[in-house]
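One such given next:
>
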Amino acid sequence: MRLLVDLGNSRLKWVLNAPGRWELGMALHQGEDMTRLLDDAWGALEAPQRIVMTSVAAKELRQALEQWATRRWSLVPYVVQAQRAQLGVTNSYREPASLGADRWAALIGARALTQTPACIVDCGTAVTVDALSADGVFLGGAIFPGLRLLRQSLAQGAAALPLAFGDDTSCLARATADGIAAGTMLGLLGAIERMLVEQQKVIGPGMQVFLTGGDAPLLAARLTQPAIAIPDLVLKGLARIADTL
């Protein structure tokens, strides 16, 4: 068995993977003690043969996870980094290694699902919208704040606006909490859809859209452009990378 791990800015996601086995898990780690969280989440697991992970979280959190795994299982996790080319995907970033490893794994996961042009929308703390050509070239992407960051920024930057959770279904809100919820939700949906239009101009017709990340379920039903929701796309890409190690 191998343990595949995606350590994000607010969520820890993992899968226990072996032939015929794909067991997903998730925990929110923001503000939590990582050692205690891992004791609760992984303390009862059998020792994996290998740990393969991506991390875009703070260095201290990644190190805490690595130390926990070394102490518990005598295993040092293999930390994935973006490459110039790997598993049918070519990285066009000016500095390939500077691309987020979670974005790289998602691209590799998407490439296994389609040979058509694709756009990968990862909806987490930040939203990334990445373009993949039909011949497997990552052409670039855009990054903007996710839903939680948008709402936090209003609460932090405008004294009269609270960090509130309201009804996001109508842009004709009649309460402040509803106005914030609707404005941030509809604004984020609009930004994503505009980015999809712009990227399709470059990569051409037949583009498939893959939606992943923690907020994907909230957004999937509200996008007007068809999208395939794959919550574990990063982990699927990690599985492909792990096969080569």
User: Anything to note?
Assistant: The two ends are 14 Å apart (CA to CA). Residues 2-79 form a domain with the Nucleotidyltransferase; domain 5 fold (CATH 3.30.420.40).
